[in-house]
Hints:
By secondary structure, this protein is mostly helical. Helix content is 76%, strand content 0%. The longest helix is centred in the C-terminal third of the chain and has 33 residues, at 67-99. The model has no long low-confidence stretch (mean pLDDT 85).
Amino acid sequence: MTIRYNELFDHVYVVLQSKIEEFRFLQYRSLTEEELWNYCIDRKWRKKEIESLPIAEIVATVFDLTPSEVLNYHRFVSHQALDLQSELAAVLFHAKSNSL
């Protein structure tokens, strides 16, 4: 039986909530359930068909997450976004300067 992607998130939402509560207990308050889910998709399951993963594997993956690995990933992604914004601003500024 294959579960659709959105239904899968709904099935494991309670597990994600539990992990977020654990992180908050450890004083890591900035993460959300969606961010944990996206981290798992982007890093833990990037080469797998998510819809065909057994629920037990998904739950085990979420329960094994550490705050440091998730936060390091989000820092990395944030820095990439900032670099991209800086590059875009430089290109736009250069284009505007040339048109004057």
